[in-house]
């Protein structure tokens, strides 16, 4: 599957790869964090059934890859090594169960977009960084976010440019629930607290159908935080335009 990374014509190259190695179909569910080998879904009103053990309809497989965004992730180098990517998903599935599945996948995807924007891990972007470490590394006062040092806040990613520190939170919600409302309220507070910190910008990247049932809470945060993005906006180059 790594053969497809960076492909200029990924659908044609997928045809070639599948004809030579049809067993690649078995790994496709894992790439969207699903262990089941049979997936039923509705696409544009049409009911579809995928059995990844023996499916040989290449057009249907390409439709799956296209609609789930896997073709884009692979061809645009948002996944740099499919083996490592799949291993990371397996670890997330095994240690955190179903409830955190989307979150781990979302982190991987966002990391790909950060790297696509030209940033290098542990050089000018960092994963899972605490407030206290940000303060020490770049000599910035973030006490407004930590209740004067009483809260051990950690961001999923931190990007450093010449002029700014960008702190990211990422999540994905496939279903509704109280967690979405708590998250929206928490990030609204974080947005307000960070607004007057010079040289620091808070970014929230979130997506998922779960937000359909929590629109009002999301809207409250949207009113005070300009830097909320979904995956479609990242596809359209939002990070490359923002991170300067």
Radius of gyration: 20 Å
Give the CA-CA distance, first to last residue. Answer: 34 Å
CATH topology of the largest domain: the name is Trna Endonuclease, Chain: A, domain 1
SS class: alpha/beta
Order of helices and strands: HEEHHHHEHEEHEHEHH
The total of helices stands at: 10
Question: Strand arrangement, largest sheet?
Answer: 3-4-5-6-7
**Under the CATH scheme, which architecture of the largest domain would be assigned?**
3-Layer(aba) Sandwich
Number of strands: 7
Enumerate the spans where pLDDT stays under 50 for 5 or more consecutive residues. Answer: 95-101
- Structural domain count: 2
Strand content: 15-25%
Net shape: globular
The helix content, as a percent range, equals 40-55%
Roughly what is the average pLDDT, rounded to an integer? 87
* Biggest β-sheet strands, sense, barrel: 5 strands, mixed
Class of the largest domain in CATH? Alpha Beta
Account of the protein in words:
- It contains 10 helices and 7 strands.
- It is α/β, with parallel strands linked by helices.
- The chain folds into 2 domains: 2-82, no CATH class; 97-242, Trna Endonuclease, Chain: A, domain 1.
- Strand 4 (154-160) and strand 5 form a beta hairpin.
- Helix 4 (82-96) packs antiparallel against helix 5 (101-116).
- Residues 95-101 have low confidence and may be disordered.
Provide key terms for this protein.
two-stranded antiparallel sheet, 244 residues, alpha/beta, Trna Endonuclease, Chain: A, domain 1, globular, 5-stranded mixed β-sheet
What can be said about this structure in brief?
This protein has 10 helices and 7 strands. It has helices at residues 10-20, 58-67, 70-75, 82-96, 101-116, 131-138, 178-194, 215-224, 231-235, 238-242; strands spanning 38-43, 46-51, 125-130, 154-160, 165-172, 200-207, 228-229.
